[in-house]
TrEMBL record:
GO terms for molecular function: guanyl-nucleotide exchange factor activity. Residues 21-102 form the DEP domain. The keyword Phosphoprotein applies. Keywords: Guanine-nucleotide releasing factor, Phosphoprotein. InterPro entries: CNH_dom (IPR001180), DBL_dom_sf (IPR035899), DEP_dom (IPR000591), DH_dom (IPR000219), PH-like_dom_sf (IPR011993), PH_5 (IPR041675), PH_domain (IPR001849), Rho-type_GEFs (IPR052233). This is Dbl homology domain-containing protein. Residues 826-1138 form the CNH domain. It comes from the Eukaryota. GO terms for biological process: intracellular signal transduction. It comes from Fistulina hepatica ATCC 64428.
């Protein structure tokens, strides 16, 4: 007995059931015939108690009709009785009141025996596999009797009295007036219809909802969500109407046989209906659409509905149940209430208080219908028939007649604001559900994963933030509409609050929409899968055949629409209304918001225009220039058409060329515009001119004459695509069309390109005004470029020597120079190297034609000549060994650094004599580096242009540190010392059958720069070598031919697996992989100048032209900085130390060494000559080092001051400053 005793109950035996029910039936005081009965219960109470016990214990039976049959069996055996001892059969309702025989207060009757009998429908089947869902094969299975028995009971339950008159005595009927008879008949029919309505709602619950939720496997995806969408709050409706029916039945029982009051009941019910029926009716149209869609697309669900409809019917011969009919029942039932209540009101005597209640209930029900219609409108969100509803469609004529014409217009405009807000929120939601989520979750991917995130940011931006704000705004509008409809007092406060909330979101979103449109068009043009996706979305019914760009642009006009609607409301608002003062403030706030977005839109349109030009630029084969036009900070300054006279002077005077010129913030580009297949392309006429290398020469030359044929076209309509760009983007960069006095006059202006392929460029404008405008724009472009370069330069020039090194000036070339005294001619500076002494002094050695000077860095006056040797070409420092190497007059010498700059006067090394390392060989050049931890010195002797001899030496630390033997005597004894061991030993000697120019130390090999190209040699493994770049690929035949006529300048690591090979002659660079094969499809990087030397300061390469230093990114080849000068040359490229430096760039970070790695020399500017005087003053050479800087980045793109807007898009973060990496 420790276990639950109910587990031993057999529910098919009435005796067991009676014992259980005796304690579980709820009792209470119930009134019948105006007599209260304590400890009583209704038929519904006993049926509900039986149902609760058997539905889980016996086969999951969910139908109350089986419980009703069991209750009637117990009633027939007098287990309980009707308080008035009526003979009517027990019903599942509250009409009758029952009590147990032994439960009276003053009597206690002991039952001799319990009710007995077997409930056949509750007996268990003998087949072990028999269940509710899968009936067994037996014809006599008890479960098979459940359906038949319940159907028979259903038919019996529907047999009710047809007329109220049949339920009362003839004597009572004769005493009533005809009006009262009709009134009681209406009440009786109203209760009957309420019962039928509840049976239908019960059927929905038992036949459709519960089986749908319990189906295994599920017949729909996410059954709970589907049931919520289809049936909405139908269970709440059932509860409300159950309570209404119970109260009606209780009133009928208490007032029997005549019901005197019903209006109060319906008035209370209408209050409860207000919270449930509008929700259901508002969702009804969407539920019908969802049901139709599911039936059309889900065969499992369609089969499920058919099976449920066939299995459960109203009677044996009746039609099958239609789910659509049941879904429509609450709508129809609510619509019947006004007719019944109005009929009941007309049949009620004027002196009956129920009439007032009925009228109030009737008005509440009618208002409830209006609220339901309003809820339908709100939940539809602009879909279906309700999308065409206006304010007057939801307001009765009686109410409209009570309002003034102005107030009706005002309410109609408020309604329109709410209606359009619903459509707007729906479009924002569609942008997520129809486009963004399918794109992000597509399998296979529609947009490659490496571009997907950037695409979604550029296109959708912060539209989810807009949706959040407007969804909240719409909910507040709906709440006001539900509370105040049909006459809304004011929505100004809600609008004002919304504008303040979404202001920042619009300031970010609106400027991005031109970029979003461009990205969509660009993706459609190059991605067939995306184009198919867009076409598929166009066919989606929710899109209404509107393109994706329509939904992207929806927020743009919405702000202006608010202004128009608020102005309309203001016009119809009475003078005494508070909105008269409040609405202008909201309009002013909206207007300010629109104006604040305009600069960002203009900036974005200019950026898109720049991108469009970038995609339409066509370069000649092999002449492509990466102008970095897709950089976030890039901007277009000006565009327009100009004329140029051909270089061939033999052409006729009217054979002019029309050019379309683009001025970017970094390049000046001349193109020829060509139209083909409705597309405009801009073919680059000549190499783009960097603004850093462009000079404005002359804008004052007189006009020249020419033929008028081409000029007429120049003044006519511009090309369609360009005109569209100017019109849509508002650039206004077209040519002026002001008439001149002579249509054949052209106005020249002269530019100069200071680069390798440059020279003088003369262009012609159509008018003096146009030429003046070009001058203004070009001056602005150059000025802005100078500002940007000054703020973003990557290297600063810091002088090491200002007055020490002199060369004869051009005006004193015929004079005899003075030698050997301070301020004398030193000759051209050729080399330098910085180093540190053992005692920590930071020094620099500078070599020139007259010797070697050493002094403190950054102290020009400390420089002193330490070596009096001629024709110094190279110098290097082996700090670990204390040796200084000098190549002078084709000989290589090694000096102990203590002998040149002693740290103490009594050091033993101060008396060390230098060693000549090359013997009798002539040294062309030498190089110092380390391979596998071994410091090596390689010098080269050339044998004409056919071969080069290489001699590899290794320093011996023990011999270098060996103390010099001191000798006594004079000068002769010091000159004829005993021979000492050499400081270097021979490591390798080999011959290369080609003219060598330089040697670069790699990690484990050396790269020899020779006439054949780059020879990569392994000194450790039998001098194996390989030539790069590999030229066998037939696709790179043009590149191979070009390489054959070039001389290599340098080899630099750009990434972990890639090198940049630099050449002179043709002046270009090419990337190769670690196997020496050209990468990046053989695309070359073209130098702007004539590079005579190239240096490497990661992550930049520095190309030295005599006129300027050209600085480029090593991994991209992009031009970064131009440093101008006079007779500029590189004197130290970072080598010459006993360590090699090839850092690898980090992932996405710039590794910049913050110490100088490059030295240079240039002539100082000479003062202008004085007429009649010849100056004999020599020219000064400035020796300098290039110090890397931490770049300063402007937060936005730079545009012309005449039309630029100071707007910095929030989505474009500035580039990060490069990380500082210490020198190792």
């Amino acid at each position: 007995w420790d276990s639950d005793p109910e587990q031993f109950i057999n529910f098919s035996l009435l005796s067991h059931l009676s014992v259980l029910l005796r304690d579980k039936v709820p009792r209470g005081t119930h009134v019948k015939g105006s007599i209260p009965y304590p400890r009583a219960f209704t038929g519904k109470d006993i049926v509900s108690t039986i149902q609760s016990q058997i539905q889980n214990a016996c086969f999951g039976v969910g139908d109350r009709r089986l419980a009703l049959q069991v209750a009637r069996s117990l009633q027939n055996q007098l287990f309980f009785y009707e308080v008035e001892w009526g003979s009517r059969e027990l019903r599942d309702g509250v009409e009758d009141v029952y009590m147990f025989l032994d439960d009276a207060e003053d009597t206690r009757i002991e039952r001799e025996e319990l009710p007995n009998g077997v409930v056949t429908l509750l007996t268990k089947c003998y087949a072990p596999d028999c269940s509710d869902e899968a009936r067994c094969y037996s014809y006599s299975c008890p479960r098979k009797g459940i359906t038949a028995g319940l159907k028979e009971e259903a038919a019996a339950a529907e047999v009710v009295e047809k007329e109220w008159q049949d339920t009362v005595s003839p004597a009572l009927l004769a005493s009533l007036s005809p009006k009262e008879i009709r009134r009681q008949t209406i009440i009786f029919k109203l209760i009957a219809r309420e019962e039928a309505y509840l049976r239908d709602l019960d059927t929905v619950e038992s036949v459709f909802i519960r089986p749908l939720l319990n189906a295994s496997p599920p017949v729909v995806e996410n059954p709970a969500e589907f049931v919520e969408a289809i049936f909405s709050n139908i269970s709440e409706l059932r509860g409300c109407n159950h309570r209404l029916l119970e109260v009606l039945c209780v009133r009928q029982r208490e007032h029997a046989p005549l019901i005197r009051m019903t209006g109060d009941i319906f008035l209370e019910a209408a209050t409860e209906f207000r919270f449930v029926y509008p929700v259901y009716m508002g969702n009804h149209s969407m539920a019908e659409k969802r049901l139709k869609d599911e039936l059309d697309t889900n065969s499992k669900f369609r089969l499920f509905i058919e099976q449920r409809s066939r299995q459960y019917t109203r009677d044996g011969d009746g039609p099958r149940l239609d789910l659509r009919h049941f879904l429509n029942r609450p709508v129809e039932h609510l619509q019947r209430y006004p007719f019944l209540l109005e009929a009941l009101y007309h049949e009620t005597e004027s002196n009956n208080a129920d009439g007032d209640f009925l009228m109030e209930a009737l008005q509440s029900i009618r208002k409830l219908q209006s609220m339901a219609q309003l809820r339908t409108f709100q939940l539809a969100m602009g879909l279906g028939p309700s999308a065409k509803w206006e304010w007057h469609d939801l307001v009765t004529p009686d109410i409209r007649r009570l309002l003034t014409k102005e107030e009706c217009k005002r309410q109609a405009i408020i309604f329109e604001l709410i209606k359009t807000e619903m459509a707007y929120v729906r479009d924002l939601e569609l942008l997520t559900t129809l486009y963004m989520h399918p794109l992000c979750n597509a399998e296979p991917a529609i947009i490659p994963s490496d571009r997907l995130q950037q695409f979604t940011v550029d296109v959708f931006h912060n539209h989810t933030e807009l949706y959040f704000h407007h969804r909240k705004f719409l909910d507040k509008l709906h709440e006001i509409q539900r509370e105040e409809h049909p006459r809304i007092y004011s929505i100004t406060a809600v609008v004002f609050d919304a504008v303040l909330n979404f202001r920042e979101a619009y300031l970010e979103y609106v400027p991005n929409y031109p970029i979003a449109h461009y990205r969509i068009d660009e993706e459609i043009a190059k991605n067939a899968a995306f184009a198919a996706f867009i076409e598929q979305c166009l066919r989606h019914p929710d899109s209404q055949r509107l393109h994706m760009k329509h939904f992207i642009s929806r927020p743009i006009p919405r702000l202006q629409r608010y202004e128009l609607l608020l102005k309309g409301i203001l016009e119809q608002t009475p003078a005494s209304h508070p909105d008269r003062q409040d609405i202008p403030q909201v309009i002013e706030l909206l207007s300010a918001l629109c104006k604040e977005t305009e600069p960002g839109v203009t900036s974005a349109k200019q950026k898109v225009e720049l991108w469009q030009y970038n995609s339409k630029l066509i370069f000649k084969a092999g002449e492509s220039v990466n102008m970095d036009l897709l950089n976030e900070n890039r901007s277009l300054i000006y565009t327009g058409k100009l004329l140029r006279q051909p270089d061939n002077s033999g052409l006729r005077g009217n054979d002019w060329q029309e050019l379309f010129v683009l001025v970017f913030d970094n390049y000046f580009v001349m193109t020829r515009q060509k139209d083909k297949d409705d597309a405009t392309k801009y073919h680059v006429y000549r190499r783009p001119i960097p603004l850093d290398l462009m000079t404005l020469v002359n804008f004052t030359d007189p006009p020249t004459q020419r033929g008028a044929g081409l000029l007429r076209n120049l003044r006519g309509a511009r090309d369609g695509s360009v005109r569209d760009l100017d019109t849509s983007l508002g650039t206004g960069n077209g040519l002026r069309t002001t008439d001149t006095t002579d249509s054949r006059s052209l106005y020249p202006f002269t530019l100069h390109h200071n680069g390798r392929l440059g020279g003088t460029v003369i262009l012609y404008a159509e008018s003096a005004q146009a030429r003046t405008e070009w001058k203004q724009k070009l001056e602005e472009a150059l000025g802005l470029r100078n500002i940007v370069q000054e703020s973003n330069k990557v290297f600063e020039v810091e002088l090491l020597s200002t007055e020490t090194f002199l060369v004869p000036s051009m005006s004193s070339m015929n004079t005899t120079p003075a030698w050997g005294h301070e301020g004398s001619i030193t000759g051209k500076v050729t080399c330098s190297v910085p180093f540190n002494t053992p005692d920590g002094r930071g020094l620099v050695a500078i070599g020139c034609e007259e010797g070697v000077w050493i002094g403190y860095r950054h102290d020009s006056r400390s420089l002193r000549r330490v070596l009096h040797v001629k024709m110094v070409t190279q110098c290097a420092m082996l700090e670990d060994f204390g040796l200084f190497l000098v190549c002078a007059d084709k000989a290589l010498f090694a000096y102990h650094i203590e002998a040149l700059v002693p740290s103490t006067l009594h050091s033993s090394q101060t008396m060390q004599t230098p060693q000549k390392l090359n013997g009798s060989r002539e040294v062309a050049f030498f190089s110092v580096g380390a391979i596998n931890g071994r410091t090596l010195v390689i010098y080269v002797k050339k044998k004409g242009v056919t071969a080069s001899n290489f001699y590899v030496l290794e320093p011996v630390i023990d011999k270098i540190n060996e103390k010099a033997k001191t000798t006594t005597g004079g000068l002769g004894s010091r000159l004829f010392r005993a021979p000492r061991s050499d400081w270097f030993r021979s490591y390798r000697e080999f011959i290369l059958p080609s003219e060598a120019f330089d040697i670069v130390f790699l990690k484990a090999r050396i790269a020899i720069l020779c006439a054949k190209g780059f020879e990569i040699m392994d000194l450790a493994e039998y001098l194996k070598s390989v030539s790069i770049p590999v030229k066998e690929d037939s696709r790179l035949a043009a590149l191979s031919k070009r390489l054959d006529s070039c001389r290599p300048l340098g080899m630099f690591r750009s990434t972990d697996d890639e090198f940049l090979l630099c050449y002179d002659g043709k002046q270009f660079g090419v990337y190769v992989d670690k196997h020496g094969e050209p990468s990046r499809n053989g695309v070359t990087v073209e130098w702007e100048g004539t590079a005579e030397h190239v240096a490497f300061h990661p992550p930049y390469i520095l190309l030295f032209d005599t006129r300027f230093i050209e600085i480029r990114r090593v991994e991209t080849g992009l031009l970064t900085q131009i440093i101008p000068g006079n007779d500029v040359r590189c004197i130290w490229d970072g080598r010459g130390l006993n360590s090699n430096y090839f850092p690898t760039l980090g992932d996405g970070q710039d590794a910049i060494i913050q110490e100088a790695r490059v030295h240079g020399a240039m002539n100082a500017p000479e003062p202008p000559p004085v007429p009649g005087l010849r100056s004999s003053k020599p020219s000064v050479q400035h020796v300098f080092e290039l110090i890397p800087t931490i770049p300063l980045y402007l937060p936005g793109s730079l545009a012309s001051p005449s039309n630029m807007m100071m707007y910095y898009p929030q989505s474009s973060s500035p580039p990060h400053s490069p990380t500082l990496q210490p020198v190792r």
